[in-house]
Amino acid sequence: LRRRFYRSTEKERERERERMATRVLSRGLCYGATKSLAVETGALRAGGSLGGGRHSVSGVTATVFGATGFLGRYVVNELGKIGSQVIIPYRCTEQATAHLRLMGDLGQIVLDPYDANDPDAVKKYVQDSNVVINLLGRDRETWKHSFEKVNVDMASNIAKACKEAGVERLYHFSCVGASPDASGKKFRTKYAGEQAVREHFPEATIMRLAPLVGVEDRLLNSYAFMTRRMPYVPLYDGGATKMQPVYVHDVVKAFVETLKFEESKGKLYEFGGPETYTVKELVALVEKTIREPSGSFNIPSSVGKLLDSPRSALQAAIPFPIPTHTMLTSDHIDELESDLLVDESSLGFKDLGIQPQRIDQGVPIEHVRFWRSGGYDFGSTFES
Asked: What pTM was estimated for this model as a whole?
């Protein structure tokens, strides 16, 4: 009897191994997974009346594309805090995902490398999820990843796979300024990506974001870097472009709020900060914060594009990136021809009961102070 028991056990284990080999990601990897989004009386289930936490089970099984980016780490952390199971396909090295493993309970964060250009690979990662979040994007083009490929083709593949898999909620993150007639190529392809997502998944929730501010941001940190390390900070056409920078934590709060009610399906939200700044005012804010003398320099946008034209021509011909700052590229200069302001008639923070924080005081700008010369408490001008 004992031999018969062990033989049957071995056969069961063999069948289990074969099943797992055919489906790399399954609900067996994330315990308690469910295909139905757990929403009760307008609120996420997260551990009962006392609230949830990383050890609770929210009922959300989310696949996050682009989780290793700036916004992605905050989205994953917020999902982990409410007890969600998060599947993270990634294209980078395994070491670049290490910080994400700690954002959920044991076994709740599943990471796996994938080929973003393979539609079948995308299907595999969304088939067991009830929420899919697309955070893929690029600030600049490379020889391998053009704006069209990242913002349109990959977004279309994800939306199509979600529809075929019967995913309940799809979130597509875009940017304020997305328009078919925008000067910037990134904005035009972002709009085309939104239309592609709508075509395949009409119920998708689209979120347009103003430039984000946070510890890892590429806005204030870029101005601080150029102020400290470059001879001057270029202000194209006098730095007159207007924008509403928004704190990254406020955006994540808004995302979680929309998970709580079905009415957010198929809607478009625009999120921007409470204050409007010109580029010149943002540069001045950074210079004051890091206590550095003004190093800004007015330059016509046409001259800036001319200076970047040799790099652009060479970049199109070689298969590796040429080191240069994104804010010095022609694409970025084109983007500055459009004001990045939220449409007041669109859905936003006010519809979700969220008051966004100012980015010029308190925690949102704290990270910029570490750019001060000589350390946090010092600086070149010693001004408060």
From this structure: 0.85
